Each structure stands twice: as structure tokens, then as C-alpha cells.
Amino acid sequence: MLRNLSPAIRQYLIVTGNYWAFTLTDGALRMLVVLHFHQLGYSPLAIAMLFLFYEFFGVVTNLLGGWLGARFGLNRTMNLGLGMQVIALFMLMVPNDFLWSAMAGVPWVMAAQALSGIAKDLNKMSAKSAIKQLVPKGEEGQLYRWVALLTGSKNALKGVGFFLGGALLSWFGFHGALTLMATALGLVWLYSVFSLGEDLGKAKTKPKFSEMFSKSRSVNVLSAARLFLFASRDVWFVVALPVFLASEMGLPHSLVGGFLAAWVIGYGVVQSFAPKFTGTERNQADTNKCQMPDGRSAMIWVGLLAFLPAAIAIAMGLGFDPLWSVIIGLLAFGVVFAVNSSLHSYLIVSYAKDDGVSLDIGFYYMANAMGRLLGTVLSGWLYQGYGLTACLYVSTAMLLLTCLISIALPRHAAVS
């Protein structure tokens, strides 16, 4: 069936399929690790520490991965990411007695999670960069739709992966679930090795190591905005929100996990439809052209988002039911944040230079990883010392800063 499609569509489907398969295992593995190590008796703090290297190496991997992709090709970085995830899954297939050992088990699991984190960001950077190479130059409307579909489907599948991880743990146990996931992803990796184009994303001139840092003003400004955009989400979503729902609202862990997984799925669905909200409508003067979102669009949408965390905090302060204030506010935040995220994902692919596209995209997602790391650390610290309301107000401050940074983005729309 794939043979009847154009080469670009065929490569896009392979890249997207790789990304989907990886994302399912990534979400499932996170849930498997949390639930299994909770059963082994690990404390919440100890479980959180297992993911420390996973997040930290995202910063390093995106920066180095962009250079590797431009130098050696995106097919190699994507296949490397898939292969490393398979290795990470096999690393965790050690006896539970070993995993319980604080001296050996904890460093071993942290190393496996670090490898998984590197694999995740290699895979993501490769997938986002590959789209730039597969869409014909000037077809900005198609570029936006493909980026939105890839980004949205990834997040929806990550939520599905949360459910999948819990189900596999119940049906097959920890080691059985890992075996199934590693086998399935290994088959995907083998198919990808023989199917992805060898020259995908490879720069015409070998980029120097010093060229990892972007020289594009648009990319640098957008990267700074992305850093604070994602820090504003994670400063209350990653640690503070689930702890608040479980400890202060008294919700069972299964309900908290299910609600957050459903939120991630819905968030991904909205991302896929972001072009409907942000302006790819036909230009009345020329029906062959689409008016595309630009830097002004990014500023407006993040300005709208900035009101929502503050509104949740104000509602709680005025005595409205805190649970419903958070739930309704989170749903509204998810919709507007999803549009912001999808819009940003399109802009970076559009801004990135054609030759060595992964250099700019890797640098951008390095800023994204730094924002997630900053938000995660602040989330635990602020919630422990000052509560959820403080996290929400800091989120608002970060979003206002993102809005100010976005003023410097280019004000002209790309046209296709």
C-alpha cells in the first residue's frame, strides 16, 4: 500500500509511525516505573529521583542531537533513538531484588531512564526536523497541518501510553510488559532501518560543532519564549497538581492518574486541530493562498493563556470550590495551551533553515527541555513552601514574560 504513495508521503508516514510507536512505549514506561517501584516500597521522592536524569539529558540531547542529525542524517538519529529505547527497556529486565537495592538498583534504573530520555529527545527532534524536509518549499499550510497532526497525535498517544502501562502491568507483570514493549519496538526499529531515506535532513556542508547554537534571531527569540511557556505549565502541572488532588482533595491515585491521562489525550487532540483556530483560512484576494499565523499570533494566544492560571488562583481565593475551580480551569488551560504549543511547533519548523534543519530545531527543543526542568523543580519547591496558589501566580508571571518576549517575533505571515 505504501508503494502507491508519493515518496514524501511515504517517508512522512514512516516517521510518524516511528514517533507514535516510541511515544506509546515512553508513556507506558513512565507509568510502569511509577507503579512498579511504588509496589516495591520506594518513597515518592525516590521515585521522582528516578526521572531526574530523564529530564536533565533532554537539555543535552536536543543540543547535540540537532548537530548529529545535520551531520549524519535524521534517519540515523531517529533509528538511534528507537534502538536506545529498546536497550533501556531491556536494562530494566533485572530481578526485583536487584531493583530494590539502593546501592545498585537505584543508579541502574536512573541510568536506564537517562538512556530513555536521550532516546525520546533524539526521536522527537528527528521527527519534527524530518517534516521540514518532506514538505515542498513554500507550502506553509501543509507544513502547519503536518506539524500539528504529528505533535497532537504524539501527546494523545502519550496519554494512551499511561493507560497502556497500567494495563500491561496488571495483565503481564513488570517484566512481561517490558518484554512485550521491547519486542514490538524492536520490530519497528528494524523496519525503520531499512525504510527511512538515508539522506533525510543531512546538511549539504558538514556543520561544525560550534554551530550547535542558533545564529537566527527568530529561532533564539522563539526558543526563549518556549522555555518560559513550558515552565509555566510544569510549575503547577507536574508535581503540585497531582499532589494537591491526592492529598488536599482526597482523590484516589487511580482517579488522579486517569484524569491526568485523559487531559493529556484531550490536549493532544486539540493540538491536532490547532490550524482551525489560528488562521489557515483562505485569503479572500487569492483563493490559492492561506494566511498563516506569525509572531503576532503567538503573542496574542499566550496573552490569552496568561489569564487562566491567575483566574484559578483568584477563584480559589474567593472561596469557590477548589476542586471544581482547578478542574474547570485545567480544562480551559489545556485547550489554550495546546493551541500555543502547536503554533510554536509550526513556527520553529517554519523559521528553521532548510540546510541542516535539525540544528535550529534541536536548539529550540533544548530550550523546551530547560523550561520543563525549571518548571518541575519550581513546582515541588513552591508547592511545598507556599501551596498551589503560589504555583499558579508564578505560572501567570512566566506567561506574561513569554508574551513580552513574543513581541520580538517576526510580524509577517508566511504564505503558501
Short description:
This protein has 416 residues and is mainly alpha-helical. The protein contains 15 helices and no strands. The two termini are 29 Å apart.
Give an overview in words.
With 416 residues, the protein is mainly α. It is 79% helix and 0% strand. It is built from 15 helices and no strands. It has helices at 7-39, 44-50, 52-72, 74-91, 96-100, 105-134, 140-195, 217-237, 240-248, 253-272, 274-278, 295-317, 322-351, 357-386, 388-406. Helix 6 (105-134) crosses helix 7, helix 10 (253-272) runs parallel beside helix 13 and helix 14 (357-386) packs antiparallel against helix 15.
Architecture blueprint of SSEs:
Elements: H1 7-39, H2 44-50, H3 52-72, H4 74-91, H5 96-100, H6 105-134, H7 140-195, H8 217-237, H9 240-248, H10 253-272, H11 274-278, H12 295-317, H13 322-351, H14 357-386, H15 388-406
Helix pairs in contact: 1-4, 1-6, 1-7, 3-4, 3-6, 3-14, 4-6, 4-7, 6-7, 6-14, 7-10, 7-13, 8-13, 8-14, 8-15, 10-13, 12-13, 12-15, 14-15
Features:
416 residues, mainly alpha, globular
Helix content: over 70%
Return the structural class.
mainly alpha
Strand content: under 5%
Write down the secondary-structure element order. HHHHHHHHHHHHHHH
Rounded mean pLDDT score: 80
* Number of helical stretches of at least 4 residues: 15
- Terminal CA distance reads 29 Å
Low-confidence stretches: 281-288
Dominant shape: globular
Assembly annotation:
single chain
Rg (CA only): 21 Å
